[in-house]
Amino acid sequence: MALRGADLDVFEGELLMIVGPSGSGKTTLVSVITAILAQDSGRCEVFGRDLSQMTQRERARFRASSIGFVFQMFHLLPALTSTENVAVPLLIGGVPRREAESRAVRALEQVGLAARAESLPPQLSGGEQQRVAIARALIHEPGLLVCDEPTSALDHATGQGILETLQDVAKRPNRAVIVVTHDSRIYSFADRIARMDDGRILDIVSGEDRANLR
Length: 214
Prior knowledge:
6-stranded mixed sheet, alpha/beta, Rossmann fold, two-stranded antiparallel sheet, about 35% helix
């Protein structure tokens, strides 16, 4: 789906949800914001940088340093412990193993999984695996965390717990969280909700108005 003049601000300290039917342009919008896709026109500025002025290599470096991703599927390596899974991005970036794993343990503590640091993914529940994925996305301390349908593979209660974790993440200094979702059960966790259809942002609601969305 092509975007048709989407206009959106994302603020530090907030959890913003982007909602809308399949094909409405949500994935395209997020792909532009995270420098995966380049827009044909208009301007996309993230952390004061105009993404359209970046080379492909600069865009890749920008994603690696400034953006964290959490997906519907957890994408954990089954032969690695929670700590090792979380440490992978740092190891790829050349951080020494001892330092990388020490930072990974701290990241797991931040999502309430210190006790599962040495567990393998098959030994974890779905919610625990998603928390490991969140810790991995945060290991390089990105300013923006983008989550694509983070609760769709989870039961309701577990999904609520994941959103509580994401709310805590959004409140940390110099941090913002975007959640792309079809799950109306989690709308109450959003600071603002942007509704999309046909490549456009129809409206942005906040506060009590979000309770009326379905």
